[in-house]
Specification:
mainly alpha, 2 helices
């Protein structure tokens, strides 16, 4: 019986960062001030970028 060496850590990290990106997009949409909306956009973009990096690092 063959045991896998793979890990699901990349998928988990990407999903967690996807939730952060989704929340950042919500802040961007519903933020009160333009500065708050800009921070939401920054959080969404950074989290989405890190989600892609996590998938590449863990080779998911």
């Amino acid at each position: 019986m063959e045991h896998g060496d793979g890990t699901d850590k990349g998928i988990g990290v990407a999903m967690a960062l996807g939730v952060v990106a989704f929340l950042g997009a919500g802040v961007m949409f519903a933020g009160g001030t333009q500065l708050f909306q800009a921070w939401g956009f920054a959080a969404a973009v950074i989290a989405a970028s890190l989600a892609v990096v996590a998938l590449q690092i863990y080779d998911a």
